[in-house]
Automatic annotation (TrEMBL):
Family note: Belongs to the phosphohexose mutase family.
Domain called Alpha-D-phosphohexomutase alpha/beta/alpha: residue spans: 68-97, 129-182
Residues covered by the Phosphoacetylglucosamine mutase AMG1 domain: 190-292, 314-458
InterPro entries: A-D-PHexomutase_a/b/a-I (IPR005844), A-D-PHexomutase_a/b/a-I/II/III (IPR016055), A-D-PHexomutase_C (IPR005843), A-D-PHexomutase_C_sf (IPR036900), AMG1_II (IPR049023), AMG1_III (IPR049022), PAGM (IPR016657)
Classification via PANTHER family: PHOSPHOACETYLGLUCOSAMINE MUTASE
Name of the protein in its database record: Phosphoacetylglucosamine mutase
Native species: Oopsacas minuta
Pathway: Nucleotide-sugar biosynthesis; UDP-N-acetyl-alpha-D-glucosamine biosynthesis; N-acetyl-alpha-D-glucosamine 1-phosphate from alpha-D-glucosamine 6-phosphate (route I): step 2/2
Keyword Acyltransferase: no
């Protein structure tokens, strides 16, 4: 664009921004781009969502017109919350540098919005002759439709071409953004479905036991969310090879109420409406289907009616199953010298899962702060990055180098039956297709777990027997202002308020295999308290002690323990 055209173009753009923000007045309170974007009561969000439309369009223009995503969802939060999160052109989370712009824009007065937009254009050297492209999707929350209107307006005001993809799972939107920019696969919803269905079918065919196998049916709690809509379609495509029985499909129950991945992980009870007979394979998705928990009933009575026989296989279990499974093929393909493989966890990972990964599987493990954005970024630093949060978010990323070596192996060994090594190349290639490369995805994780169990001939019982979890507790404590709680060392140590970490250290020292930390949630107005120890008695003492310390030192208002360990 000629320099004489820049100022008029900018004036037109700012006028258009001024017009759109006027229709979405700023609500009271402050907003912060947290663990997964903005999340709060939906009534507070119209101005924020409209401004995120503006930012998404600016981000796209700053990236030379590549597609950027914006998804309206509050995932595991209650139905009356909503949220908005932006997706970068590679299908990953918004770059941290732009999160600062997001927070600034969300809190700016009408006038400051114009200054901020102008500042972003300058700093990011945005060429105003580029046309932006924004993909929009939302979950099933009733407020989503209203909020999407503002998002759409904001993006259009900055001259973006907007594609509203409708009601999608969060991973489907990430996938659409990634592959619309890469042009290597169809980015459409049908393309997404066909990609994972084809990879799953091929993996079943490559199974050394032959393709005439029986895959255990699985009962899927869809949290009354968007997962139900798309799982129905996926189940039809995979029938009769695999069978998915859908529960909490949204026709009767309330989103995330008494069901969903967060509910079963926190309370360690069955989701409402799903009757698990002993040893049946079951799982729960969350409200936007980007995380998954597996569980079964071991048939034992625990005296705790809601959780009788309940056994949970969480994100740590997925990490250990899939890392071990994939590493085995890396070894058989003789790629272990050429490819670095690492497992990324957070402080919430059970200590015994980390010991199993390092001790039994001999894999390197790293720890990051909570939030897919941190784990995903760390995983990208390795050729094969396996990342999972204990709460069920995660996937396995393959670097370009890994994919090139695997592809070369497939090309030089076209017949998978010719040797174990040949088969391993083919299996790795299909796994890299099955596992969503943009973000953790409940659907592809579910299918990958089914494949790993099928190859190993394992039931959930065999899977859970790999190691025993250390007893652990997760509690939520409401404090007057959670922003006073600040942490360091991948959230394992608390640096503010002063004195809190000293008290935690003293308590942890007294307890065998003790570990505890506190951190402010980025999605709810609470502080989370995690504790683990060698026995249930010890972990109860430790957890209660830390909760009391948070109350006293961080200004507690209300607190409740929301997590029981598997006994
Ligand atoms: C989001 C993030 C996750 C994070 C979770 C809880 O999940 O994507 O990475 O683990 O929030 O975060 P916090 O402890 O900060 O509240 P989701 O499924 O709600 O989108």
């Amino acid at each position: 664009m000629a320099s004489s055209e820049v100022e008029p173009a900018k004036t037109i753009l700012l006028t258009s921004v001024a017009n759109t923000i006027e229709r979405f007045p700023l609500r009271e309170g402050s907003f912060s781009y947290g663990t997964a974007g903005f999340r709060t009561l939906w009534e507070r969000l119209p101005s924020v969502v409209n401004r995120m439309g503006i930012l998404a369009a600016l981000r796209s223009r700053a990236k030379g017109g590549q597609g950027v995503g914006a998804v309206v969802t509050a995932s595991h939060n209650p139905i009356f919350d909503n949220g908005v999160k932006l997706v970068d052109p590679d299908g990953g989370m918004l770059s941290p540098a732009w999160e600062g712009y997001a927070t600034r824009l969300a809190n700016a007065s009408q006038y400051d919005v114009l200054l901020t937009v102008s500042d972003i254009i300058e700093r990011e050297h945005i060429d105003l002759s580029t046309v932006g492209k924004v993909f929009i999707a939302r979950d099933t929350r009733p407020s989503g439709e209203i909020l999407v209107d503002g998002l759409l307006e904001g993006a259009k005001a900055v001259g973006a071409h907007v594609e509203d993809l409708g009601v999608l799972t969060t991973p489907q939107l990430h996938y659409a953004v990634r592959y619309s920019n890469l042009n290597s696969k169809s980015s459409s919803l049908q393309g997404y479905m066909e990609n994972i269905v084809t990879a799953f079918r091929k993996l079943v065919e490559l199974n050394p036991k032959g393709s005439d196998v029986k895959i255990d049916p699985i009962k899927v709690d869809c949290a009354n969310g968007v997962g139900a809509i798309h799982l129905k379609h996926l189940a039809e495509m995979l029938s009769p090879l695999a069978e998915y029985r859908i529960y909490n499909d949204g026709t009767e129950g309330v989103l995330n109420e008494g069901c969903g991945a967060e509910h079963v992980k926190s309370l360690q009870v069955y989701p409402i409406g799903l009757d698990a007979a002993p040893n049946e394979h079951c799982c729960s998705l969350d409200g936007d289907a980007d995380r998954i928990m597996f569980f079964y009933n071991n048939g034992e009575t625990s005296g705790h009616a809601e959780g009788d026989g309940f056994k949970l296989l969480d994100g740590d279990r997925m990490a250990s199953l899939l890392a071990g499974f994939i590493h085995n093929f890396v070894l058989e393909a003789e790629l272990d010298k050429e490819l670095s493989m690492t497992v990324i966890q957070t402080a919430y990972a059970n200590g015994n899962s980390t010991s199993y990964l390092t001790g039994q599987l001999k894999l390197q493990v790293m720890c990051t702060s909570t939030g897919v954005k941190y784990l995903h970024a760390k995983a990208l630093e390795h050729d094969i990055g396996v990342y999972f949060e204990a709460n069920g978010h995660g996937t396995v990323l393959f670097s370009d180098k890994a994919l090139q070596l695997i592809l070369a192996g497939v090309e030089s060994n076209p017949d998978p039956d010719s040797s174990k090594k040949a088969r391993s190349f083919h299996i790795l290639l299909q796994l890299s297709d099955l596992l969503n490369q943009a973000v953790g995805d409940a659907f592809s994780d579910m299918l990958a777990v089914q494949i790993a169990l099928l190859y190993r001939g394992w039931s959930y019982i065999d899977w859970i027997n790999c190691y025993s979890d250390l007893p652990n507790r997760l509690a939520k404590v409401r404090v007057r202002d959670r922003s006073i709680v600040k942490t360091t060392d991948a959230e394992r140590r608390c640096v503010s308020p002063p004195g809190l970490q000293d008290v935690i250290d003293r308590m942890v020292k007294e307890v065998s295999k003790g570990r505890a930390f506190v951190r402010p949630s980025g999605t709810e107005d609470i502080v989370r308290v995690y504790a683990e120890a060698e026995t249930n008695k010890l972990v109860d003492e430790l957890s209660n002690g830390v909760i009391a310390a948070v109350f006293e030192i961080a200004g507690g208002v209300d607190g409740k323990q929301t997590h029981k360990s598997s006994k």
